[in-house]
Amino acid sequence: MAGLQPERSLLLTGATGFVGGAARPALAREGWRLRGLTRDAARAKKHDPTLDWVQGDVSDPASCARALDGCQAALYLVHGIGEGVDYHRHEVMAAATFSKAAAAVGPGSPTELPDLRRVPSRYDGGHRSTGPVGPSRRPVASPA
Description:
Largest sheet: 5 strands, mixed
Strand content: 15-25%
Helix content: 25-40%
Low-confidence stretches: 119-144
Number of helices: 5
CATH class: Alpha Beta
CATH superfamily: NAD(P)-binding Rossmann-like Domain
Mean pLDDT: 76
Radius of gyration: 15 Å
Number of strands: 5
Number of domains: 1
Order of helices and strands: EHEHEHEHHE
CATH topology: Rossmann fold
């Protein structure tokens, strides 16, 4: 039909967290079909049955590839603060793993993402690990 836009699918990592939870409604309003990568898909689906949940972990390349399959874009909003004394090293390694998996999907057409600065949140981004992980948190376009 004329005038219909193709469905846009976005992988939202960190969808069960504070920032991802705040971003979900804004992304849905912008017309994105959302997929979440989570370590407990059954629990996440009970909490939000509207998302397409994929069970896995951002530190596992196969999980990332499976979750990215068919998505036009991805947002990496994972923050593992409080997950042990070595959370910072683990978080940076997981972000690098996710970034490599997204790059392996291949370049796609540029994808315009909503301005998440408009999402109401108390998150200030001031955690120690935000800097080194930051470059891996950029939107990733992938082929449809």
